Amino acid sequence: MQKRIKTRTVILMWLVWLPFSGAFAGIHSFFSQNDSDVRLDSARQYMTGNPARSAWLAREVFLNAKISGDEDLLVRSALTLAKVDLNLRHFGEVITTLSYLADSTGVALPDSMQRDLFWYRGQAAYQTGYFQSAKRDFQQYYAFASKENDSAAMSKALTNLGAVCMRTGDYDESLDYNQKSLALAIEQNDTVYLSKIYNNMGGLYAYLTCYDSAMSYLQEAHKMLLFRKDTTGIIASLISMASVEREMENFTTARDYDCEAYNLDKKQAIHDYYLQILEALGLDYYMMKDYKNAEKYLQRALNTTVREKNLYFNTHIICSLVKVYMDSDRTDSAEALLKTGLAEAEQLKNKELLKLLYKSAADLYAMKGNYRLAFENLGKYHNYYDSLNNGPLRSRIKELEMNYQNDEREDEIRELQLHHNLLELKLKKDNLHKILLLSVIGFGIIVILIVIILYRNTRESKRLIQKKNDELADAVATKNRLFSIVAHDLKNPLNAIVGFSSLLTSGTNPDPEKVVRYARRIRNSGLQGFDMIEKLLEWSRLNLDDIHLNIGENDLYYTAEDACKLVGNYAETKNITIENHIQPGTTACFDKYSIESVMRNLVSNAVKYSPEKSRVDIFAELHEAHVIVRVEDHGIGIEEELQDKILNDEAIMSRAGTHNEKGSGLGLTLSREFVIRNNGEIWFQSLAGAGTTFFFSLPVKEQSRDTKLS
């Protein structure tokens, strides 16, 4: 009986408690929900003033939402936490939080929240060096921005895509993204992203070695940032300008820019560019051969990347530190660090980093005498180097390679034809021998004499054929060298023309002075390429015997005057005086056109290798039956180890002038051929640092021997 009463009492109490428990749970849930919303609002308010407390509050709400299963609160707290962690440079936490939200919850996010998710995760992936992931997220962000027709967001996405592609070495794609972003930023008058785009374009032109164009973009971005007092952007532009100055070998200027950036970054609450500045200062001191300071800054940067788990910058700094170890003869340390860097670059699948590391590996193993490993790493470097060449340049090189291959095929056909002719000749000879052998009995001594005569003729034929083969091989080798030189030297004027013309057609409105300056540089580059092609045509006509010389008695004074007029404008740009000391009436027997070309080439070379405000002199002196013309300069001279290569049949070489002028090396080759065709000789005397004198001789007639020469 008592058991029944107890059972009924328990059941009655449970029935009474059940509705109250539900009510209590609802009340607790209500107050918990309200408390989480309050904490989340507080996290947003503390985001700028106290980011550490903001992160703590947002993370607490996020963890509670994960436990309670409140999906709406989970999404809102995750995005708030990601934004705070991004400002605190906790990039790994950003990726972890948002990847959980995207992959584990199964929640269908609104478009606006998805857009924020892709933006925050893309920024974190970019900062940690996972550029392919960053590219995918920025592309998703761009898709949402396009769907909403949000031009500002589209420009932001395109700018970041351009930066990502530049990091991965996809320069063509980066240029395309930046051009699209530039058009949108100009349309929206968005100076914030316009300055970022100019900064990216400066980096691209620096890669193309168009340093003037690169500095123009970077300085324009720097002006905008100074006007807006955007300290973070100013630091970024200073680092970029320092990088270009370093490429131009202005190491002191580069260090000054980096030090200015370092001082500005110290005043910031969050050091966005601390790693880049440390690495840049390390490179500045490395270029200045101050290896102790270089190692100090690079090691600090490396320790920071390890602490922040930033794999990309860790690998990038390893590339620089390896160079320091190699140049300070610490090859074992360099090798150990290099292996770590290669493993990380392979993990990142970053072609640009792999290219730099394989180049360093090739140099390192060459220093250690392990030429097999050096050769293997050099091959890998060239594979990545070829894959990273820019589009227009690749097309031009491909075109030249196709022309070269076509010429090689023609040479092969000619060689096969020659081989066929030799076989036919051999067959004829064999048949003739058979006939002679059958006639031996009847003709005895006569047959023997005929055999001897035929043998001598055959030997002479072989000798002539061998001589022709040797001449053909020399011509092919010379042509191959020439095409290699022209293909290489044409890149500089073509790059300059493409770079400056891109500036003129980029959609911006440069001031008239810049337009005139760019046009003048395009014209100078075009004239340089035209001069190279003109010399190439003269060389080809000369080798094809297409130039017919009209040799007769001519006045050397007027020939020299005509040559000086053609070089005069070039000499004026360097403030160089050309003095013609040949007396009027000084005659010799030569072809006027070809010897004028010789004088023009020699005087042009003298100007090219002379410093500003110097002098070039032309003289002529009578020596027996020849007039000897000499062209003197007071320039940089020719190093002793290079003198044997000048005027050499087997070498076509070129050096940069005192103003870094480029050339093909054809001028002296043409001059030598022309002088020889005019029955003369050419030679030179030179002393490094003291100048060079070129001589060539021409025959004179009897009646001109009494002519007074100076």
Structural class: alpha+beta
> Poorly predicted ranges (pLDDT <50, ≥5 residues)?
16-32, 390-401, 702-710
> CATH class of the domain at 549-704, anyone?
Alpha Beta
**Assembly category:** single chain
In CATH, the architecture of the domain at 549-704 is: 2-Layer Sandwich
CATH topology of the domain at 549-704: Heat Shock Protein 90
Largest sheet: 5 strands, mixed
Taken as a percent bin, the fraction of beta residues is: 5-15%
Q: State mean pLDDT (0 to 100 scale).
A: 76
Number of helices: 26
Explain what you see.
By secondary structure, this protein is α+β, with helices and mostly antiparallel strands. Among the domains are: 392-540; 549-704, Histidine kinase-like ATPase, C-terminal domain (Heat Shock Protein 90). 75% of the residues lie in helices and 6% in strands. It contains 26 helices and 7 strands. It has helices at 2-49, 51-68, 71-87, 91-103, 111-127, 131-147, 151-168, 171-188, 191-207, 211-228, 231-247, 251-266, 274-287, 291-308, 311-327, 331-348, 351-367, 371-387, 391-438, 440-489, 491-504, 512-543, 556-573, 592-608, 640-643, 666-677, and strands at residues 552-555, 577-580, 587-590, 615-623, 626-633, 682-687, 691-699. Strands 2-4-5-7-6 form a 5-stranded mixed β-sheet. A two-stranded antiparallel ribbon has the order 1-3. Helix 9 (191-207) packs parallel to helix 11 (231-247). The longest helix has 50 residues, at 440-489. It is elongated. The N and C termini lie far apart (150 Å).
